[in-house]
Design a protein that fits this description.
The chain is an alpha/beta fold. The protein is 30% helix and 21% strand. Helix 11 packs parallel to helix 12.
C-alpha cells in the first residue's frame, strides 16, 4: 500500500516540480511511526501497551479468585474456578477501540497472571505468547492451540511494524529456605493440558495444580520506533535479587518428603541466571540502558536489576494485593507498601526516577524525551473507579505479597 501511495504522490509532484521519489517516500514512511508509546496499568501486573495501532496486553488477570478458595503452602491447592468473563468484557467495552488486542504476553503461569489469558484471547482474537504451561492452560480453557506461541527465552519477535520484543528467561521469586518460597520458586511446567471433568466449574488455580509458574518466568525487553526516534522499556512481573543472580536451584526431594503431589508437573531446570539472560538481550538490542523498567521490585532487586538496565525511570507494580475487586480500585497507595521507601532510596542513588501508579488504568506516555503520566479519566469513569486511595494497609500487602507474586 505504501508503495502505491508513494508512486501516485510522485506522479503528481513530477507534473509540477522535479522532486525525486526517494525524497518523498521517506517522509511519508516516517509519518506512519507513532508519536509516542502509551502504557496503561490495569492492576497487579496487567498492562496495555499501545504502539500505533499495535496493542499488547501483559498478563490480564481481572478475575479475583477469593482467598478462601486456596489451601496448602504457597497457594498449592485450590477449588476449581472459572474466569470472570463479564468483568473482562466490561473492561474491553470501556477501552472502546483500544479493546482490540493483538498480542497477549504472560510473564509466568501462576493464576494471578495467566488465569484470564484464554478468555482475553477468545474475546479479542489476540495471539498468546508465553510458557508451555500458559498455552496448556489456555487450550484447556477453550482457546485453540494455533493461537498460542511457546517461548523459552532468547526469542526476538516482531509485534507489528514498529515494535520488537526480546524474551528474557527469568526466575520466580521465593525464599528457598522456607516451604512457601520453595513452592513458588521451583520452576514447574505442566506436562500436558489439564482436563476439566464434566460438571466441574473450571481449572484448579493452585500453584501445584493447573497453574504452576511455567518453568520460572519470562521477562520482556521492548524496543519501538516512534516518529522522533527509538524508545525502549523492560517488563518483569516477579523476582528477587537471589533468584535474579543465580540459576534456579532444584530440590525435588523437598516435594517428596512433604508429600506434595506433582501430578502433571515437571521441573524445568535452567542453566543460566536471569542477570546473564538480561545482559544478552540488552547486547542483542544494542542498548546500554532502557527508558523505563516496569517491574516487581524490592530494594535488593531494584539495585541488582538497575545496574544492568540503567533505566531512566521505574514503574513498580504487583504491590496492590490479589483479592479485592478490580472495580473497587487500588486498595491502598504505593507509599504505604512495606519496603517502598527502601526502593525509593536505592533508586535515588542510581538517579532513577520512581513513578508509581496511583489508581488502576493510570496511563503513561513514552517518548524519546522520557516517560510522563497522562490523563485517562474517561476510561476510569466508564469503569466506575474511585479516586486514588489516600491511606493504605501495610498488613494486607505483607500478607498477600509474601505468598505469591
Amino acid at each position: 500500500m505504501l508503495h502505491s501511495v508513494c508512486t501516485k504522490l510522485f506522479a503528481l509532484i513530477v507534473m509540477t516540480v522535479a522532486v525525486s521519489l526517494s525524497a518523498v517516500c521517506p517522509l511519508w514512511a516516517a509519518s506512519q511511526k507513532p508519536p509516542h508509546v502509551r502504557l496503561t496499568w490495569m492492576s497487579i501486573t496487567n498492562w496495555l501497551f499501545e504502539v500505533g495501532t499495535t496493542r499488547v496486553l501483559m498478563d490480564g488477570y481481572i478475575t479475583r479468585i477469593p482467598e478462601a478458595a486456596f489451601s496448602g503452602v504457597g497457594f498449592a491447592m485450590a477449588t476449581p474456578t472459572k474466569p470472570d468473563e463479564p468483568a473482562i468484557r466490561r473492561l474491553i467495552d470501556a477501552l472502546g477501540d483500544r479493546g482490540h488486542i493483538d498480542f497477549i504476553l504472560t510473564g509466568h503461569s501462576h493464576y494471578d497472571h495467566s488465569f484470564d489469558t484464554a478468555t482475553w484471547a477468545k474475546l479479542t482474537g489476540a495471539r498468546i505468547i508465553g510458557s508451555r504451561s500458559t498455552c496448556f492452560q489456555a487450550i484447556a480453557q477453550g482457546a485453540p492451540a494455533s493461537q498460542c506461541t511457546v517461548v523459552e527465552g532468547g526469542e526476538v519477535l516482531p509485534l507489528g511494524d514498529q515494535l520488537i520484543v526480546r524474551v528474557v528467561r527469568w526466575n520466580h521469586s521465593g525464599d528457598v529456605s522456607t516451604p512457601m518460597g520453595r513452592v513458588l520458586y521451583t520452576p514447574m511446567e505442566l506436562v500436558k493440558s489439564p482436563n476439566i471433568p464434566p460438571g466441574v466449574e473450571g481449572l484448579r488455580p493452585g500453584t501445584l495444580q493447573d497453574f504452576p509458574n511455567g518453568g520460572g518466568a519470562r521477562a520482556y525487553l521492548f524496543t519501538a520506533m516512534t516518529a522522533a526516534g527509538p524508545v525502549s522499556w523492560f517488563y518483569s512481573n516477579t523476582g528477587n535479587a537471589v533468584t535474579f543472580q543465580h540459576p534456579a536451584a532444584i530440590d525435588e526431594q523437598f516435594f517428596r518428603t512433604r508429600g506434595l503431589p506433582l501430578d502433571n508437573l515437571v521441573v524445568a531446570a535452567q542453566t543460566s541466571a536471569p542477570q546473564d539472560n538480561l545482559r544478552a538481550a540488552m547486547k542483542d538490542a544494542g542498548l546500554d540502558h532502557v527508558d523505563v523498567w516496569i517491574g516487581y521490585s524490592d530494594r535488593s532487586l531494584a539495585e541488582a536489576v538497575g545496574k544492568i538496565l540503567r533505566p531512566q525511570a521505574h514503574i513498580p507494580h504487583h504491590w496492590d494485593g490479589l483479592f479485592s475487586s478490580f472495580f473497587a480500585g487500588a486498595p491502598y497507595p504505593y507509599t504505604s507498601v512495606a519496603g517502598a521507601e527502601d526502593v525509593a532510596a536505592v533508586l535515588k542513588t542510581q538517579a532513577i526516577a520512581l513513578l508509581p501508579p496511583q489508581q488502576y488504568m493510570d496511563a503513561y506516555q513514552l517518548t524519546v524525551q522520557g516517560v510522563t503520566p497522562v490523563a485517562n479519566d474517561e476510561v476510569k469513569k466508564k469503569l466506575g473507579l474511585p479516586p486514588p486511595p489516600s491511606a493504605g494497609s501495610r498488613a494486607e500487602y505483607g500478607h498477600s505479597m509474601a505468598q505469591s507474586d
